[in-house]
């Protein structure tokens, strides 16, 4: 650093990693924090841009994780550098050999706290004591613990099986940001003052440190000061935006929501139809839902299953955890009043772009069919009102379920679409495949005996139910052959393993010639 700092390159490393941390925190907080609003509005702003540019926003969670990994990496480097620093501080304080480090460590610490360099102010003082009695040390420990809690509770296993643990622990970020803002107060990393450098240049005076106190010496003992706290500058704007957003979301969530209809579907699925003043949506969007009687703090995202043309908005909730099970149990109590529901949203997703493609492949796994229910309903309304602005020419819909009862969730919708397409002479517009992955020999045998019937014995639809999983290579090959010069949008709401397979097929079956068939993969991320 060009001055008297004992820990020279380690101090540079500390400052460099701290700068890196602040940069990543700024980017993370400013661009991604509470992705919902900013993600939706940014998609709207970029609506006029190239599809490839706007599609990058659909990887927001991946970017969120990458930034978190980089924060962890820089934190580890920062901590290790500090540990080396404190080891050198301690050894310099203990030294009695009259070396430069020893002399600098023993500089007077009583002159308004300016001239000292070594935070370990006596040979008997330990590194642990300094860590837990100084502002930088104590806040460093606190924000490190907070970071560890946030990262460990955000693992896939915890999020899937103990969502409440993930939810509450992730909000430790409030402590993290507060600690981050005051971490630099105290000036552990110090440098020579500008006035002292002019009077006692380091390169000239370092060689004569034994004569600093001599009256005839041109070099006097240097004076030091701590670097001012800088973190608050990096987090101020994101924190202000975050607070503004929380106020806005709180205001919206307090608007009255009227539940107009409650439907209990098979396989422990609850459908809520609601109204809210000023509510406006697009296909594939989602909302955050809170039930104060269950938890005041928990907000869970659910995809809207209604169409924009309907005079209500609806969601389908499957009981897969404590919160959703409690919600279903609350609505099942017929003699109890309908619980109050708070709604925030709607927010944008990749599925909004479905009508921008000539050909669309919609793939839903289980309850992951919900965003496509909204799309299919919107299509039905568009054909009802003879909407000629629809760019999409063909839709391939795949629904993969473990239980037969799950197909009943949107059975009426598919039946209505079948009839509508037939009446309009557009039988080829909607091609859907239903796949049953959880079945036994009795079900398969029953289906085989009734295979010649006009409608499927399991669903009552004209399209037969397939047993097993789709052969994606065959499906992509068929679509690529049928639409050799089309841009195909592939939309998935399902598990990561399925996403990996579909992404691979999109790359494999997209033509190298941009004028021929191209597959673009889109995945719902929550």
Please describe the structure with a list of short key phrases separated by commas or semicolons.
single chain; 526 residues; alpha/beta; Elongation Factor Tu (Ef-tu), domain 3; Rossmann fold; 3 domains; six-stranded parallel sheet; three-stranded antiparallel sheet; 19 helices; 14 strands; 45% helix; 16% strand; disordered N terminus; flavoprotein; electron transport; cell membrane
What does this structure look like?
The model is unreliable at 1-12, 27-50 and 110-114 (pLDDT under 50). The chain is α/β, with parallel strands linked by helices and 526 residues long. It is elongated and about 110 Å long. The protein is 45% helix and 16% strand. The protein folds into 3 domains: 49-231, no CATH class; 257-347, Elongation Factor Tu (Ef-tu), domain 3 (Beta Barrel), CATH 2.40.30; 350-441 and 457-524, Nucleotide-binding domain of ferredoxin-NADP reductase (FNR) module (Rossmann fold, 3-Layer(aba) Sandwich). A 6-stranded parallel beta sheet has the order 12-11-10-9-13-14, sandwiched between helices. It has a 3-stranded antiparallel beta sheet with strand order 3-4-7, with helices on one face. It has a 3-stranded antiparallel beta sheet with strand order 6-5-8. It is built from 19 helices and 14 strands. Helix 1 runs parallel beside helix 13 (231-253) and helix 10 runs antiparallel to helix 13.
């Amino acid at each position: 650093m060009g001055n008297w700092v004992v820990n020279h390159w380690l101090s540079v490393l500390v400052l460099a990693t701290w700068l890196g941390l602040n940069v990543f925190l700024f980017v993370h907080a400013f661009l991604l924090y509470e992705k919902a609003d900013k993600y939706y509005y940014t998609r709207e702003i970029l609506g006029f841009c190239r599809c490839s540019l706007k599609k990058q926003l659909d990887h927001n969670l991946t970017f969120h994780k990458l930034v978190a990994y980089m924060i962890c990496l820089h934190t580890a480097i920062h901590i290790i550098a500090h540990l080396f620093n404190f080891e050198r501080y301690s050894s310099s304080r203990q030294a009695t050999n009259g070396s430069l480090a020893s002399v600098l460590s023993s500089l007077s610490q009583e002159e308004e706290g300016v001239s000292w360099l070594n935070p370990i102010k006596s040979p008997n003082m330990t590194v642990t004591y300094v860590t837990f009695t100084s502002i930088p040390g104590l806040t460093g420990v606190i924000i490190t613990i907070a970071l560890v809690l946030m990262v460990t509770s955000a693992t896939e296993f915890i999020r899937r099986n103990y969502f409440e643990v993930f939810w509450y622990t992730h909000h430790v970020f409030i402590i993290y940001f507060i600690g981050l803002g005051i971490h630099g107060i105290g000036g552990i990393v110090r440098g020579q003052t500008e006035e002292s450098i002019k009077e006692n240049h380091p390169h000239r005076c370092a060689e004569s440190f034994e004569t600093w106190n001599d009256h005839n010496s041109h070099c006097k003992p240097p004076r030091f000061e701590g670097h001012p706290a800088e973190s608050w500058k990096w987090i101020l704007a994101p924190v202000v935006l975050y607070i503004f957003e929380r106020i806005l979301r709180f205001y919206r969530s307090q608007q009255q929501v009227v539940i107009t209809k409650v439907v209990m579907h098979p396989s422990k699925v609850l459908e809520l139809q609601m109204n809210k003043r000023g509510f406006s949506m697009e296909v594939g969007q989602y909302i955050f839902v809170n039930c104060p009687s269950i938890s005041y703090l928990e907000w869970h995202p659910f995809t809207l299953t209604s169409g924009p043309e309907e005079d209500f908005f609806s969601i389908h909730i499957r009981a897969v955890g404590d919160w959703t099970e409690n919600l279903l149990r609350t609505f099942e109590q017929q003699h109890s009043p309908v619980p109050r529901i708070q709604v925030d949203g709607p927010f944008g997703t990749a599925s909004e772009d479905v009508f921008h493609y000539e050909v669309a492949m919609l793939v839903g796994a289980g309850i992951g069919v919900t965003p496509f229910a909204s799309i299919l309903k919107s299509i039905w309304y568009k054909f009802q009102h003879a909407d000629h602005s629809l760019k999409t020419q063909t839709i391939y819909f795949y629904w993969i379920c473990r239980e037969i009862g799950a197909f009943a969730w949107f059975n009426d919708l598919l039946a209505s679409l079948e009839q509508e397409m037939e009446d309009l002479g557009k039988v080829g517009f909607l091609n859907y495949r239903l796949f049953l992955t959880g079945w036994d020999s009795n079900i398969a045998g029953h289906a085989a005996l009734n295979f010649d019937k006009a409608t499927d014995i399991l669903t009552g639809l004209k399209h037969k139910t397939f047993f097993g999983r789709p052969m994606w290579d065959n499906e992509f090959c068929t679509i690529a052959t049928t639409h050799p010069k089309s841009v195909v949008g592939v939309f998935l709401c399902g598990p990561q393993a399925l996403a990996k397979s579909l992404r691979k097929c999109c790359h494999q079956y997209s033509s190298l010639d941009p004028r021929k068939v191209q597959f673009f993969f889109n995945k719902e991320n929550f």
